[in-house]
Amino acid sequence: MSYTEEQLRSLLGQAYGMPYGPGQNALLEQVIAHADAAHLTQLAFTARMQATVSYVYSGEPVRSFATFAWCLAEFDRTPTAYQHYYRSLLWHFKYMVSALTKFPEVPLARTYEVLDDMQRRWTETGHSLHAVYAYRHRVAAHIGDIEAAEAYYAQWCAAPRDDLSDCNGCDPTSKAYWLRRRGRYEEAVALADTVLSGQLTCFEQPQGILTALLVPYLRTGRLDQARDAHRRAYRVHRSRLADMDDVAQHIEFCARTGNEARALEMVERHLGWLDRAPSPWAAMRFAAVASMALRRAQERQPDDELTLHRPAHGDRVAATVTAAALAAELANQATEAAERFDRRNGTDHVGTTVREILDGEPWIDYLPLSPTAARMRSRTASGATWPAVAPESAPSGGPAPDQTPTPTKAPDPSVAVPETSDPDQLLDIIEEHHEVYRMDQATAALEAFATRYGDRELTARQRARLAEARAAQLRDDVEGAAHLFREAAREYASVGDPEGEHRALARAAAAICWDGDRDDELPTLIEQTEWLLAHGSPKERVAAASRLAIVHHHARRSDQALAVLDRVADSLDAASPPGRARHAAVRLAVLAVLGRVDEILQTGPAAVALAESLGLAAESAQAHAALAAALRLIGNVTQAADHLAAAAHHADGEHRTGFRLARAELLAYTDRAGEVIDELVERVADSTARGDRPGASYARFSLAVAYLNANRLLDAAEVAEEELAYRLRHLEETEKAGGAAEVRELLVAIYERLGQPTEAIEQLDAIAEELGEDRGVVAQVAQRAGEILAAADQDDEAARRFLTAADIWAELNEPLAEVTNRRRAALSLHWAGRSDEAVAALARADAVATTLPADDEAVQWARARLDYDGAHVLWGAKRSTEAAQRAARAAEAVLALGSPGAAAESHLLQAQILLTSGQPGEAEAAARRALDLLPEDADREVYLEVLDAARSASGDVDSPEPSR
Fold first, then answer.
1. Residues 231-239, mean pLDDT to the nearest whole number
2. Are residues 482 and 508 in contact, defined by beta-carbon separation less than 8 angstroms?
3. What is the mean pLDDT of residues 245-263?
4. Maximum pairwise Cα distance, the chain
5. At what angle are helices 900-916 and 857-876 packed, to 10 degrees?
């Protein structure tokens, strides 16, 4: 296929907009081949200049030698034709010097020749020798000539900077490496601090200088800065093959700071890079560091044989390899490569360096690299014991039926028991304490009973009441409690007290039903409850209904629970206050399960007030929890969280932990996420230490969300990546929790906020692969990828993704979604300079839009947006009349939809189109319409500039001046 010069320039423009990598390289090579064939020498020169840079930053520097040499020879042949490229060509000398040292097959003399040529050209053009000294220093340091390196370093520092010096980030980075090598760590840190406090825009920064500072930060005790430098820099390096040497430094950092497990994971992640290393130097450094990391990881776990997955390459099949065997292989590879460099350089410096890496020992014992790791380490070191944690579902709160909560502390022996004249008076006191869960007082009163009346002959009724009181104490002995309740029933029966008898039998049955959700006593419980509902006093009716309702509620028979509670509505006024409070709390819990939000919101506050006024902690917690559930359902997250905090305050033990966790998980998704991070970190550590893998996973995901919403993006990424790794290892176990896809979606949001579109797209592609059978998901993923790429100005790839999404939506008969994606594709193609394709995509979007119902508001918005973006596309295609008409139509549509601000933007676009097409009068009118629609507090500067330009172009300087 042949191309015109215009088409080749268009392809070159597309290449400029692509990220560094194989795709860009392939397109540049296509342009170069066709330009050479057509003898378009200047175009071939331009494409090769870009290819030199692309090869360096995509991890193929060896290919840059040929493009640089061609451009240099072409410039020297006809310098006047390429004079405007000369500064860039001089800059490329630095790429060459740096790269030549990394290939041992290139004689050192050739590198010195390039340096001499570089210095000659710098001198001829009047440039400072600042950069020349910097790169002469680099070569001297590379071969281990310390004396020469120090001398060039001094000249480098003394020479004035100019426009050929490395940038404000890269130049100090190179100096920091030298200072680090010489043990001048404080100087390295001081040099870098001023750089990091400024604005860095270089492709290699700030990750470059942060990597240089890893060791200086450690050696000077700046451990937090060392950790953050690793996390920030590695996050960028890890996706760039060209940064393989930097990645090796981060693996070494982990392996020598007690993070051998992380180093092992990093080696496995990047192991395939060795098969396509950017240079022998990068391969050697990586192999040496990886060997040391594998050795240290195996030494940490001498009883386990560590293994890694090694990907296939050439004739080598993919396989699982042991860390020990791979360490030995990589050590040999690194040693052999070092020998080649030393032979070329005539020194032993590289070999010495590699041996030092292979023998590397810890710089420090342990540096936690994530908040959860830090907490786990501190827990383990302290030998802490781990409290029980509530189930994942929100706890209902409250004790078992008719049993008081287990005291959270030992009974207070100093609790005073009033003097009593007879056993019945003291039994009255015990029952009052039990009704409101005053356990210390009840325990003390029972002990007083034994002291005062233990040797007295009790009546049958007194024995019955005492048995009930003792049973209420036995929360952890269900069978013992049931035995005492039945004993009480027999005593009540002996004195002709059927209410007491049926109550005691109901309490015995309820205790059994509560024990592990056993239903074998449920018929007895229902039978005894029915008698009490029919014949009991108001107090007993309410208590019986609440008792049975609790059993139904915990057995998930919510409708039956609510029905029995509502049967005693007419007895509530006559019941005791604690009985009413318990009834209200149980009813709220049941309503929460049934989703009866309005009833909860109506009755909940009164239930809370009653329970709190009586000091009933369990009922107060239960009522607050129900209100939290209802408020959450209606989107009032803040108040829901406050009620959960109140529930945690009232609850004890497992329930308190559960309420606190529920609050933390709720606020993790809000702008108050920072409040609950410590809570979630603690939960991850607790669950991990107890071996509760699902609990740790659940909390870890919520923690990542909280970090994201608290704008702690590095922490969010670290924790989410940990969680993804866990879910990928336990796919079946985590599928119900959302699986890997849920975490990948979270990582997309995190990476997007971190400015890492490549990593975000990788996660989206993984989601599409994992859920590929669902075409709707694939379409959504393609659309999301298009949006991210468009925001990153990768317009060609964005257009491709939008078109993929559009085709799938068409296949699924979703025309509105298809229109949206074809519109976005058209706009991306427009920004990519591919006007003809943009117009074609717009036409297809228009065609689909005509099939949509005109009276649907969503469709009306879609058509308005189509007109607005279509105006841009047609304007770029030099079809200004149509473009202006579409902008005007968009303004009319969005104004009718009640958005004057959007209408103002559309009229502004219309004015700009008209102005550039030689219609200043019409442009002025459109600009004035835009200003009239603009909200009072909006920025008017651009609108006024367009208006002024239109007035000036039309000569209409006497027309009224708009308000500014």
1. 91
2. yes
3. 96
4. 124
5. 20
Give residue 434's pLDDT. Answer: 86
* 184 residue type, one letter: R
How far, in Å, CA of 779 to CA of 818, rounded? 10
- Classify 756 in phi/psi space as left (phi over 0), alpha (psi -120 to 50) or beta: beta
- Are the CB atoms for 883 and 911 separated by under 8 Å? no
Q: What is the pLDDT of residues 790-845, one digit of tens each?
A: 999 899 999 999 999 999 999 999 999 999 999 999 999 999 989 999 999 999 99
Q: What is the pLDDT of the chain when averaged over all its residues?
A: 91
Q: What one-character-per-residue DSSP string does 842-876 give?
A: HHHHHHHHTTS-TT-HHHHHHHHHHHHHHHHHHHH
Does residue 113 have a pLDDT over 80?
A: yes
The 3-state DSSP class for residue 902 equals helix
Distance (Å, whole) CA 232 – CA 242: 17
Q: Which H, E and C letters describe 704-754, residue by residue? A: HHHHHHCCCHHHHHHHHHHHHHHHHHCHHHHCCCCHHHHHHHHHHHHHHHH
Residues 720/744, Cβ–Cβ less than 8 Å: no
Strand, helix or coil at 184?
coil
> pLDDT tens digit string along 275-292?
999 999 999 999 999 999
Print the SS3 string covering 355-382: HHHHCCCCCCCCCCCCHHHHHHHHHHHH
Determine what percent of the chain is predicted with pLDDT higher than 90: 77
- pLDDT band at residue 371 using 50, 70 and 90 as cut-offs: low
Half-sphere exposure of 928 (CA within 13 A, CB side): 12
pLDDT digits (tens, 9 = 90+) for 810-820: 999 999 999 99
Place of tokens 């400024």: 198
Contacts of 680 (CB under 8 A, 6+ apart): 661, 664, 665, 668, 699, 702, 703, 706
Return phi, psi of residue 567, to 5°. Answer: -70, -20
Mark out the alpha helices in 319-459 (DSSP H runs): 323-345, 349-358, 371-382, 423-435, 439-453
Residue 890 to residue 883: CA distance in whole angstroms: 11
Phi then psi for residue 169, to 5 deg, are -100, -45
Judged by DSSP in three states, 319 sits in strand
- Encoding tokens for residue 531? 């008698």
Quick one: tokens of 769? 């692969």
φ, ψ (nearest 5 deg) of residue 301:
-130, 70
Residues 162 and 365 sit within 8 Å (Cβ to Cβ): no
